[in-house]
């Protein structure tokens, strides 16, 4: 049985490269995410009305982005922290064993002349015990007999040979396990990376509305067409429009027309109250200012 130290260098180095790739990919994605998030002007969130749809969209986008980023970090840690596997656990039946591990486990070229993982395990343990017994048989090293020396040399050779086979097998299995996790992780990273990127773009859109929809407005104008509506002002709406509704009671329902809509709310024109005229007053009916029906 030849020593497999020269063979195991390849799989071990490959497994380390995969772990390094996972680590640097995490660092790279974190850096890119930081730059993108910084460019979305997080302070714009504070300018939105808490009752607006854009504010809700921005919060959901942040949650989605954070969740996707968390999955990316957990997945890369899962790859980097792939545990080693012992010969005993390799022989044990599991609910799922990666295909690459199964191929190595069942390949006789990795078993050092034994018939199975179980057979290799038993012979390896027996060789270790025989080596220990050979040394225990020597009472005084200064009086070691030729037969005892021969027994020790034989036990050492057998134990060393099986040790090389086992080490080569476990290193190859370790690479197969890391490679399997990396293949799974790639799909997760692609999907979650796209999700995080979409979440950042969604947040940027929600937190930075166009100037025309950045807030309510109270301006006088006259229009010739629109959909009749009833408007009930809130306390904030009555306070904001107090100077524009002379002749009407702002605490009572007002009549007018819906002439359009914006991202902040409906574009409304107040024309009167019951049979009285008090306007025209045009404003964007955000949720904190008014309730519009009709």
- Count of beta strands: 6
Q: So how many helices?
A: 7
- Main sheet properties: 6 strands, antiparallel
* Whole-number total of structural domains: 2
Order of strands, widest sheet: 1-5-4-3-2-6
Oligomer classification:
single chain
Which strand-content bin applies to the residues?
Answer: 5-15%
Structure characterization notes:
The protein has 294 residues and is an alpha+beta fold. It folds into 2 domains: 5-207, no CATH class; 218-293, no CATH class. It contains 7 helices and 6 strands, in the order ααααααββαββββ. The protein has helices spanning 5-39, 53-80, 87-91, 99-105, 117-136, 146-207, 235-241; strands at 218-219, 227-233, 254-261, 266-273, 276-285, 290-293. A 6-stranded antiparallel β-sheet has the order 1-5-4-3-2-6. Helix 1 packs parallel to helix 6 (146-207). The model is unreliable at 1-9 and 212-224 (pLDDT under 50).
Question: What attributes does this structure have?
Answer:
56% helix, 2 domains, 13% strand, alpha+beta, single chain, 6 strands
Compact summary:
This protein is of the alpha+beta class.
Write the layout of secondary structure elements.
Blueprint: H1 5-39, H2 53-80, H3 87-91, H4 99-105, H5 117-136, H6 146-207, E1 218-219, E2 227-233, H7 235-241, E3 254-261, E4 266-273, E5 276-285, E6 290-293
Helix pairs in contact: 1-2, 1-6, 2-6, 4-6, 5-6
């Amino acid at each position: 049985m030849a020593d497999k130290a020269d063979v195991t260098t390849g799989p071990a180095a490959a497994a380390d490269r995969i772990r390094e790739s996972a680590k640097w990919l995490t660092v790279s994605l974190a850096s890119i995410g930081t730059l993108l998030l910084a460019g979305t002007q997080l302070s714009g969130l504070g300018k939105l009305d808490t009752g607006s749809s854009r504010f809700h969209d921005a919060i959901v986008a942040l949650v989605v982005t954070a969740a996707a980023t968390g999955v990316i970090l957990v997945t890369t840690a899962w790859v980097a922290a792939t545990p080693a596997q012992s010969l005993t656990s390799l022989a044990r039946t599991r609910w799922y064993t990666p295909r690459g591990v199964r191929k190595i486990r069942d390949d006789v070229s990795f078993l050092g002349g034994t018939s199975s993982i179980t057979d290799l395990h038993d012979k390896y343990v027996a060789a270790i015990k025989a080596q220990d017994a050979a040394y225990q048989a020597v009472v005084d090293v200064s009086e070691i007999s030729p037969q005892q020396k021969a027994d020790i040399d034989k036990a050492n050779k057998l134990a060393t040979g099986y040790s090389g086979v086992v080490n080569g097998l476990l290193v190859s299995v370790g690479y197969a396990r890391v490679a399997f996790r990396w293949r799974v992780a790639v799909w997760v990273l692609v999907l979650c990376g796209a999700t995080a990127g979409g979440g950042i773009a969604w947040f940027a859109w929600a937190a930075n509305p166009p100037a025309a929809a950045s807030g309510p407005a109270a301006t006088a104008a006259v229009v010739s067409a629109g959909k009749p509506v009833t408007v009930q002002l809130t306390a904030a709406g009555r306070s904001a429009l107090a100077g524009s509704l002379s002749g009407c009671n702002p605490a009572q329902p007002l009549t007018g027309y819906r002439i359009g809509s914006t991202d902040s709310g409906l574009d409304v024109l107040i024309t009167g109250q019951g049979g009285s005229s008090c306007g025209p007053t045009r404003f964007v009916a955000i949720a904190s200012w008014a309730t519009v029906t009709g």
